[in-house]
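Figure 6 in text form: structure in, sequence out.
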């Protein structure tokens, strides 16, 4: 049986890391791996009910691909697998169009993750920072003091410590 897969809408040249730090070098390398050239044309991003993101394609109920976070971390070293036990998967709508526009902010719209090259993500001024990758997110630094209650068992009577010589000779410090 030949698998017919629709084009995914990804322009792989548009997400080359040389076009900006907002694009993941590891994702680009994984998509364009010489021995797996089909990935750039066939890969889509899917989410589980829990929100875990996978990249690959569906074939007869199996997802052929990998966890997206594993690709971001491991690049070309991350292999593809046949996942048949993921439950209901939903394709992330317009993922590649958003990724081409805002880079890794499409993966982390809440701006809570840390990425390699994160030092170019933010413009900081005092207690405020603005995302330079998507130009659509800002954050305020909040500071607070927390009181911490601690407890520990301490001896009521002094501990008797014997020196090596006292132990040998059977003496005590009493």
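Output sequence:
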């Amino acid at each position: 049986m030949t698998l017919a897969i629709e084009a995914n809408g990804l322009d792989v040249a548009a997400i080359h890391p040389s076009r900006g730090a907002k694009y993941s070098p590891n994702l680009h390398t994984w998509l364009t791996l010489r021995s797996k050239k089909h990935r750039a044309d066939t890969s889509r991003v899917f989410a589980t009910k829990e929100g875990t993101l996978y990249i690959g394609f569906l074939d007869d109920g199996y997802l052929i691909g990998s966890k997206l976070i594993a690709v971001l971390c491991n690049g070309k070293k991350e292999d593809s697998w046949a996942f048949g036990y993921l439950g209901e998967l939903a394709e992330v709508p317009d993922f590649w169009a958003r990724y081409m526009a805002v880079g890794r902010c499409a993966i982390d719209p809440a701006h809570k993750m840390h990425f390699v090259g994160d030092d170019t993500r933010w413009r900081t001024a005092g207690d405020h920072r603005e995302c330079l990758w998507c130009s659509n997110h800002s954050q305020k630094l909040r500071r607070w003091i927390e009181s911490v209650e601690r407890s520990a068992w301490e001896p009521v009577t002094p501990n008797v410590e014997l020196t090596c010589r006292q132990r040998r000779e059977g003496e005590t410090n009493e």
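Caption detail: The longest helix spans residues 95-102.
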